[in-house]
């Protein structure tokens, strides 16, 4: 029907007009952002996919860097950065995690990582530590055991026969596996017969 075609055409024109108006509005905002000297980055309100793509395009034309952040479609938003303040990977990761970017904290983390790397390098240069304890335990406990007591204790140490392997003679069960299994089966049959 012709009236439906006219309605569709009218809707398409309206949509096109809205996109053009939105683009104009974004161009104005982006040019304000470029002129704002103390603003290295700007976060825009969450917007739909089409609006985000328009904003990305406007940013690119203006020579800016732009990224989208946010997990679900309703909360995704665009951030625009001036070229000289292009974000580092760390900064981008922070936004992706939904965190605020804190340059001071990032610098502290970077310093700690560098320090850890330097310590690791120094340890590698030193080579492996000598095996075994650095000192003798008897020196550590000399004030408790004295020097003679430790030697005497070491001399009288003897294996305790109650621990460790059990000689075959001490094992009570001398049946073979088959005999043991047969006995278990017999007991089971007996129990079943009693239950019935």
UniProtKB/TrEMBL annotation:
Residues 20-83 form the R3H domain. Coiled coil: none annotated. GO terms for molecular function: nucleic acid binding. It comes from the Eukaryota. Residues 112-140 are annotated as: Disordered. Pfam families: R3H. PROSITE patterns: R3H. This is SPAG7 protein. It comes from Mionectes macconnelli (McConnell's flycatcher). The gene is Spag7.
